[in-house]
């Protein structure tokens, strides 16, 4: 690797301390960044959950006037925006950060400072978008911001400008993280770990990252166009000036549908790790699960107009998108069947992570089936923009993504912290969530079929929607209670530690081979990989033949072949800055303040579009300072 | 050596999880509900419900199989006591993989066939053999629906009248934001998108009154953007059409209705037309509605005019506020006094001068409100012989002005949308050299764009359709204003 | 695995699983991302072709000869880029610095043309607020201009490094990565030039459009 020789005088000394707030601000450690992602997005999860509870409170009875329409519109807009961009995506990013280097036997991600930058930009972007609550101008145009209602003519004020600027800042964070994980997974695998030996969660992370890198720029374009419309009076989506509102929908959903898979694929990855571990047998049909994930990601680009079946694109377009949408159910089904195949014949331990994962399959199946129902445009004509759709995507995103993430939290908590989350509280957490979730969202199917449109803040007494709405609101409260039990569990388990050891679940992947929590450098020795689920086969060498004997498409690597592989792939240490040395002299990147400073500059620039050119200038100056400082700062100071 | 946690999962309490499912099922399937998509009253909604049920039952079978398999496997293969025996370490089975890839494809083909048939049956043109097609233009406004019958030259709002068992073809439009046109019991929805006129057709096959609602989030009063569809026997529909061409009786001088009429003209008629029964009034209402839109869009904050429902024969309606409340004297008086008590966010209160008060309530005494209500409730097809529509001889300029012009012009000095017209007769003669006052005013009525007054938007429609005699009478009347 | 391929290339074998340098790999991934970014802007331009409600229309305002010159200038900068990289790899410091400086200058000239074009259009009454052509034209070319600006600054930084001997054979990769970016921006301009200046140059007012009130 090259070393930059240019030096810039540093305004303040490089952070060295490993404790205290500055150690967090200057950190480039993927585990610490993962923790920061986790904590931040969990706080937003609570905020988004409270928004949901207020929505449910307002809808609990007919003609309710608890919350007026202005606030209600802000609540559902921010609930959707928060849960998608500030909760599910960054919670997944927390897992990427924590796990990817551990799963592929690396010491960090490929670009540790870029990784820190991603987090800080995400943090400032999320603060920016939520700052709108304080100014009383929270966005109110719905989370997909349909023009022209999101334009300045029909939505004056700063609300939707906050939304669009905030999303652009967040998009930047996502793209940076996506690039980082693509390179990390492709380039930093432990010696011997070919692509078809990487853990399935790593595969799903790679596929998700590719989707992020390709889909977020599409949102960025939509965001820039809407922002110039709002701030500078251009006509992209302004129907009075010749702009076409349908164009916004096309661009937004061209991003929006891959985004759905960005949200769900990481959870599928988590579940694909948890099921084999607790069934004590390997993932059934690993290559098929991988290909199904890739197929979903690819086909996800050709289904966007199924969000627009009632927009009037005509029967030909509706036919095409109906067929492509139905087809995407096939790889999804393949995944579900393979998970069942994994469980079949296993020795299933029903611990909390497993309960969440099995529930994931059960609930995600419901969401998938209701998805097939409104893949048919004639039935969708009745369901589009009703509570049926609300029920559908909550079964996918809560019953799917969120349950998967909770499964992952319970599963890897011992690895992250060294101690278990309490099992009894965990089961209570799970049971309350499942009861509350189903009570909240199952009745919404009926509400939708009974003609209740979404996004209405009130409804008449004569519509017959009260019982189901009341049930849904009670379910929401129970779901909230479940989350509360989880928070209690976190503190209870911290105070009454039950130490877990390195490998509490009898795991299969490399992260379980290192200590809990892992050392700063992750692995004392970089592992040498021979097999998929290498750690498992180290523990149970007697099962190697059993696993491989019927695998006709993949020969068992002989000793000779393996040596060759090892020769071909020099040992890699913690990054592209490393020196190919797994045994001695572990080099970790030095800490840096510049990601934080650069992120501050980016956020300042964004805030400028909301205020004035002075703020833009200040943001730009900070940004340039961060950039130059970053470029001039060597990854490692000379020792 | 590999320690495994000993907690295992209590099975019986897990059955409690079925409770919410049971509750959900209990609350299910209520075809009698006003907007239920099951209790259909038209073939399109029926086909859509049938297709839903078809896919639903297939999905239900898959659901039972998958969920059943999950529960079966979780019980059958759960770890018992401390049995840590390793199961067989299978890696997969290619034949199975192929099977469960092909099986869903086959199921989806079964779903796709009726889906595609229905798409082309419902979203293409109206089939020819279903009878005479009634054309309707439905326009979504923030936050009410306008219905125009171009072939019959009838315009109404919020309550759509259609004949039973006859196909109705809709042209769906919007000028402001996206709305969605939806009558769950008769047909699924299609959006109303600015710049993108849409098409939908439907048939109501049962006489009755049906609920409709905007389904696309359209702003603050989205929840209150509703309408009704009234399906008539053919004869009743023709009678309704005839009624829409029959003027209401003129109130007797000095009556409550007459007082209400004057108050309406003074306070409400800028935005609400209430007599579109005469020939030519259909075209006028279309241009007036355009003028109101142009007025509002050119000055969103302080415009004194805004798109508003046509109130022709309001007294025959069943509801107010677009299906929000039954039409009664009480609900109507509440609405006139304080519209937002019924429909939060309505533009009426923000733009009409009569609501320019501290609390937003109308600057009217209860008696005045009552008079207006009485007048509106009296708006029904009159008993006077139909046909004598435009008075050609001795046209009453003041009356023509009150009906057609007060939307935008006051007879004083104050600006409404257009300039106040006091003293127009004196000014007009000196505007253009060589042009008399009469010619100038007439030209301004026929071609408003010719002499646009500085500072006013070019929104006034051309009024030649009034006819020569009426314009002459109007010019004479205008010259008397001081 | 990839080792054989890597040795044939006479490039230093990277210490990574794929044998590709991580930063270079990331630049490729970033460019894929940027393709989507420009792709959607270009698609927007194409969808909105001929939809302007008022003039000036492309046929009235685009100056194709002048933009052809600036396009040629940008193309030549890519050639200079190739030569610069060649001389860095060959260890000929002065020639390398010179050619990198040529890239900077040509890039700056292109920006000058764009600035001139924007100013002229504004004088002739076309701004992003005028009509849908102005909106799509200015934002698309403006976003590209921003990319060129970043590239010029980056290249200036490279020229500076080269001049002071800090860009050498062993870290020629730094310039190669910057070059990937520069060539990409150049290629994107060829697409934009084709779409705006060649395909839609004769676009006039759409049929049947009357004057409508426009706000902004």
Explained architecture:
The complex is a heterotrimer of chains A (639), B (482) and C (216). With 639 residues, chain A is an all-alpha fold. Chain A folds into three domains: 1-28 and 590-639, no CATH class; 29-506, Cytochrome C Oxidase, Chain A; 510-568, no CATH class. Chain A is built from 20 helices and no strands. Chain A has helices at 21-25, 30-59, 69-104, 112-135, 159-187, 200-232, 245-279, 286-299, 315-327, 329-343, 352-373, 377-383, 387-417, 423-449, 466-495, 534-539, 544-548, 559-568, 594-610, 613-632. In chain A, helix 2 (30-59) packs antiparallel against helix 15 (466-495) and helix 11 (352-373) runs parallel beside helix 14. The radius of gyration of chain A is 25 Å and the shape is globular. Chain B has 482 residues and is of the alpha+beta class. Helices cover 37% and strands 13% of the residues of chain B. In chain B, the strands form four sheets. A five-stranded mixed sheet of chain B has the order 3-2-1-5-8, with no helix packed on it. In chain B, strands 4-10-9 form a three-stranded mixed sheet. Chain B is elongated and about 105 Å long. The termini of chain B are far apart. Residues 1-8 and 386-394 of chain B have low confidence and may be disordered. Chain C is mostly helical and 216 residues long. Chain C has a single domain, classed as Up-down Bundle (Four Helix Bundle (Hemerythrin (Met), subunit A)). In chain C, 71% of the residues lie in helices and 0% in strands. Chain C is elongated and about 55 Å long. Chains A and B meet through helix 3, helix 7, helix 8, helix 9 and helix 10 of A and helix 2, helix 3, helix 4 and strand 7 of B.
């Amino acid at each position: 690797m090259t070393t930059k020789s240019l030096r810039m005088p540093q305004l303040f000394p490089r952070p060295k301390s490993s404790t205290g707030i500055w150690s967090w601000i200057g950190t480039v450690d993927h585990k610490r960044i993962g923790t920061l992602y986790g904590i931040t997005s969990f706080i937003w999860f609570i905020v988004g959950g409270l928004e949901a509870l207020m929505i449910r409170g307002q809808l609990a009875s007919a003609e309710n006037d608890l919350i007026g329409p202005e606030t209600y519109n802000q609540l559902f807009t921010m609930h959707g925006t928060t849960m998608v961009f500030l909760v599910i995506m960054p919670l997944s990013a927390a897992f990427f950060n924590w796990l990817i280097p551990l799963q592929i036997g690396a010491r960090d991600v490929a670009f540790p400072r870029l990784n820190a930058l991603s987090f800080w930009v995400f943090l400032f972007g999320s603060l920016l978008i939520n700052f709108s609550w304080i100014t009383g101008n929270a966005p109110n145009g719905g989370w997909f911001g349909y023009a022209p209602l999101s334009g300045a003519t029909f939505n004056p004020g700063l609300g939707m400008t906050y939304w669009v600027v905030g999303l652009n800042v967040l998009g930047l964070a996502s793209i940076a993280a996506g690039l980082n994980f693509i390179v990390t997974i492709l380039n930093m695998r432990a010696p011997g770990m070919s692509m078809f030996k990487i853990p399935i969660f790593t595969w799903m992370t790679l596929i998700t990252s590719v989707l992020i890198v390709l889909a977020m720029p599409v949102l960025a374009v939509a965001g820039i166009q809407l922002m110039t419309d709002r701030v500078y009076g251009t006509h992209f989506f302004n129907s009075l000036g010749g702009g076409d509102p349908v164009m916004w929908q096309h661009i937004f959903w061209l991003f929006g549908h891959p985004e759905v898979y960005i949200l769900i694929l990481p959870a599928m990855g988590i579940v694909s790790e948890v099921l084999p571990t607790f069934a004590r047998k390997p993932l059934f049909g690993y290559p098929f699960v991988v290909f199904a994930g890739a197929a979903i990601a690819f086909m996800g680009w050709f289904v966007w107009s199924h969000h627009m079946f009632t927009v009037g694109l005509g029967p030909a377009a509706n036919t095409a998108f109906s067929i492509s949408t139905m087809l995407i159910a096939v790889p999804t089904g393949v995944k579900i069947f393979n998970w069942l195949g994994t469980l079949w014949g296993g020795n299933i331990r029903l611990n909390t992570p497993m309960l969440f994962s099995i529930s994931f399959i059960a609930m995600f199946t419901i969401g998938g089936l209701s998805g097939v129902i409104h893949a048919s445009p004639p039935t969708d004509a009745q369901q589009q923009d009703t509570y049926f759709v609300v029920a559908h995507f909550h079964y996918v995103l809560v019953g799917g993504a969120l349950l998967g993430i909770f499964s992952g939290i319970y599963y890897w908590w011992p690895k992250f912290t060294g101690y278990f989350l309490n099992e009894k509280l965990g089961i209570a957490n799970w049971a309350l969530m499942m009861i509350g979730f189903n009570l909240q969202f199952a009745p919404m199917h009926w509400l939708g079929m009974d003609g209740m449109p979404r996004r209405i803040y009130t409804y008449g007494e004569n519509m017959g929607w009260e019982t189901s709405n009341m049930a849904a609101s009670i379910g929401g409260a129970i779901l909230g209670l479940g989350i509360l039990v989880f928070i209690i569990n976190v503190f209870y388990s911290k105070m009454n530690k039950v130490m877990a050891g390195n490998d509490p679940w009898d795991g299969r992947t490399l992260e379980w081979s290192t200590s809990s929590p892992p050392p700063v450098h992750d692995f004392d020795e970089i592992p040498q990989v021979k097999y998929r689920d290498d750690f498992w086969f180290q523990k149970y060498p007697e099962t190697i033949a059993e696993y491989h004997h019927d695998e006709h498409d993949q020969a068992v690597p002989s000793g000779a072949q393996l040596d060759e592989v090892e020769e071909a792939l020099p040992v890699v240490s913690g990054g592209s800055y490393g020196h190919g040395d797994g045994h001695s002299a572990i080099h970790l990147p030095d800490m840096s303040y510049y990601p934080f400073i650069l992120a501050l500059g980016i956020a300042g620039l964004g805030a400028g579009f909301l205020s004035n050119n002075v703020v833009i200038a200040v943001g730009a100056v900070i940004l340039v300072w961060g950039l130059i400082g970053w470029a001039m700062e060597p990854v490692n100071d000379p020792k | 050596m590999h320690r495994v946690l000993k907690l295992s999962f209590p099975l019986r309490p897990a059955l409690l999880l079925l409770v919410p499912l049971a509750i959900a099922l209990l609350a299910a399937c209520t075809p009698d509900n006003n907007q239920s998509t099951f209790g259909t009253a038209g073939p399109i909604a029926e086909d859509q419900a049938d297709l839903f049920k078809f896919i639903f039952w297939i999905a239900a079978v898959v659901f039972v199989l998958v969920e059943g398999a999950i529960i079966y496997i979780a019980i059958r293969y759960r770890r018992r006591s401390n049995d840590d025996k390793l199961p067989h370490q299978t890696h997969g089975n290619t034949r199975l993989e192929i099977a469960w890839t092909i099986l869903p494809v086959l199921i989806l083909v079964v779903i796709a066939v009726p889906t595609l048939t229905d798409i082309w049956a419902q979203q293409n043109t109206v089939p020819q053999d279903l009878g005479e097609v009634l054309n309707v233009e439905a326009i979504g406004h923030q936050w009410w629906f306008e219905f125009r019958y171009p072939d019959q030259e009838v315009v109404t709002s919020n309550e759509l009248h259609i004949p039973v068992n006859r196909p109705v073809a809709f042209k769906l439009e919007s000028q402001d934001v996206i709305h969605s046109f939806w009558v769950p019991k008769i047909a699924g929805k299609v959006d109303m998108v600015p710049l993108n006129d849409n098409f939908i057709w439907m048939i109501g096959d049962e006489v009755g009154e049906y609920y409709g609602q905007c389904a696309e989030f359209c702003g603050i009063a989205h929840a209150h953007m509703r309408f009704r569809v009234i399906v008539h026997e053919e004869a009743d529909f023709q009678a309704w059409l005839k009624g829409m061409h029959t003027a209401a009786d003129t109130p007797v001088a000095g009556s409550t209705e007459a007082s209400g009429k004057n108050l309406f003209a003074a306070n409400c008629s800028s935005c609400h037309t209430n007599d579109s029964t005469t020939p030519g009034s259909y075209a006028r209402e279309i241009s007036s509605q355009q003028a109101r839109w142009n007025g509002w869009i050119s000055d969103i904050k302080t415009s004194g005019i805004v798109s508003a429902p046509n109130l022709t024969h309001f007294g025959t309606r069943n509801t107010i506020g677009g299906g929000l409340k039954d039409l009664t004297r009480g609900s109507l008086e509440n609405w006139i006094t304080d519209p937002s008590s019924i429909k939060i966010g309505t533009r009426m209160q923000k733009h009409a001068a009569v609501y320019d008060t501290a609390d937003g309530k109308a600057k009217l005494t209860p008696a005045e409100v009552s008079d207006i209500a009485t007048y509106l409730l009296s708006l029904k097809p009159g008993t006077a012989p139909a046909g004598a529509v435009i008075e050609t001889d001795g046209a009453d300029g003041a009356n023509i002005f009150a009906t057609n012009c007060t939307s935008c012009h006051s007879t004083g000095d104050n600006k409404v949308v257009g300039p106040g017209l006091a003293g127009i007769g004196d000014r007009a003669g000196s505007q253009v050299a060589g042009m008399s006052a009469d010619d100038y005013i007439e030209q301004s009525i026929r071609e408003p764009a010719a002499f646009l007054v500085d500072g006013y938007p070019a929104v006034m429609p051309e009024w030649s359709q009034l006819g020569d005699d009426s314009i002459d009478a109007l010019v004479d009347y205008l010259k008397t204003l001081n | 695995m990839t080792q054989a391929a890597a040795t044939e290339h006479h490039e230093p074998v990277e210490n990574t699983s794929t044998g590709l340098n991580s930063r270079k790999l990331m630049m490729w991934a970033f460019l894929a991302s940027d393709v989507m970014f420009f792709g959607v802007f270009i698609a927007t331009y194409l969808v909105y072709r001929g939809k302007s409600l008022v003039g000036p229309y492309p046929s009235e305002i685009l100056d194709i000869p002048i933009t052809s010159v600036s396009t040629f200038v940008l193309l030549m900068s890519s050639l200079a880029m190739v030569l610069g990289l060649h001389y860095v790899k060959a260890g000929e410091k002065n020639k390398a610095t010179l050619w990198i400086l040529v890239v900077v200058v040509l890039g700056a000239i292109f920006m000058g043309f764009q600035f001139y074009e924007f100013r002229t259009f504004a004088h002739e009454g076309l701004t992003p607020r005028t009509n849908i052509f102005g909106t799509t034209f200015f934002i698309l070319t403006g976003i590209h201009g921003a990319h060129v600006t970043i590239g010029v600054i980056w290249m200036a930084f490279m020229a500076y490094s080269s001049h002071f001997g800090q860009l050498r054979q062993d870290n020629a990769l730094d310039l190669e990565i910057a070059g990937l970016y520069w060539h990409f921006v150049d290629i994107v301009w060829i697409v934009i030039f084709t779409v705006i200046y060649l395909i839609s140059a004769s676009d006039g007012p759409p049929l049947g459009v009357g004057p409508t009130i426009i706000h902004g």
